[in-house]
Amino acid sequence: MQRSMKTIGVSLALAVCACSDGQELSQGAQSKHTGQRSQRQSVAEAPSIGVEFGVSSPDVPLGGNLSSPQLAVSPGGLALLVNDDSNRRVFMTLDGAGNTVHSNTTSPYLTTAVGHEHGWLLAGHQPVQGVSPLGTPTWFNYATVRAASPTAVFGPETQLPKPPSPASNQIFGLASGHETFGVLVREFGVFTAHRLLFCRIAGDGTLPPSSLVLRSIPFNEQDPLGQLSYAAKGSLTFANGNYLAVWADHSTILAARITPNQTLVDTTPLTLLELGAAPAWLNVATDASGYLLTWGEAGNVIRGTRLESDLSVQDPQGFQIAAASSARSEPVTEYEAPYYVTVWREGAAAGGDLWAARVSAASGPVDAAPLRLTGHGDIARFDVGPNAAGVALLAYERTLLGHDSPTVRLKFVDVESGSAEAACSAAPGSGSGTGTLGAVALLTALGVFALARRHGGTPYCC
Q1: Residue 79: helix, strand or coil by DSSP?
Q2: Is the pTM here over 0.70, yes or no?
């Protein structure tokens, strides 16, 4: 999902395709969602949702091979980070139509970003060579941030407070308040305490004198096999005037709220859920009032629960968003009115397709079967971000099977009109495997149609 300097023609698919993904999700507000399993059927040239076009840069000549896209969102617009074939990380601000407005290059290890009204914060892990407890050379990763203005002018790179040597720190979550940024960081190493920290960062990238410790476990209390005893997964968001950090302590999901001034609202972490096993991953998203917590279970099952603004759990047993899969990437969940949207990639490591499922804050899961967003089996990496009411923006890397040159593509997805009743899977028991097109839902977002006309694209299924 990448392209070089010239914007590629836009394609508009007028159909929404939802192919069965092994799970029917119940609708309506409830605390338990069980669902029924069904068999994935083969699909012939599955249509996909939205408008697709390439990536261009007005200030930085991009190499032909782009990869590893990450989207960032702020009230003022969107930004995109990509790698080019000169191993540069290129930061681009986008307008509402996905066109690049400003661009600049930065260090390749700054892999993600977040934004607010006054600018952006880039973050990543800087590799630094050090010495292991055995006296041998080794590499440590140190969380590093860098502020950027709305016009992509960078401030200096700054390392977050380093953990005691020898240890590394890892960014679990990145979020923006109205004028500040928050970073959720895990410190870990050999013969050192493992800690989960929150670090408030000013809009200009300035760090506070110290970080806020959310959880700490001494070395002598850690798992004797060397595995992390807590906080193997975590996530961060901002709503209701506070940052919300969530993390897993073994199979217990905990949460704490932090003010923009780096003060704990919850001096004792709140217990949200008790799971049967430690989650494979954990993510929290917000609609600016409540929250959707999603996590992974054995077999790549995606589950979720809704949280009220006071963090009371609406679905104590959780509900299933997508059934088991042998090959599924860690999903990304964002809120795009009127739904939360969870997007994931299924298929081989070298390439797969993107799928999505929607959750209503009022009634829970929306779709009887996940929606298929791409249909060529060539997606390597992806990210998703809200763009405008009812329209989300996907950024993804296409491997272009049979070629060595990946491309980065952008795609608008109409969230509201992506009808879950549309189907293109083979009729159960038909044995044909060729696919039969069921009900078709036309995209109705005027912004999507206007974008197609503006770029002069012709409709086709990508």
Answers
A1: strand
A2: yes
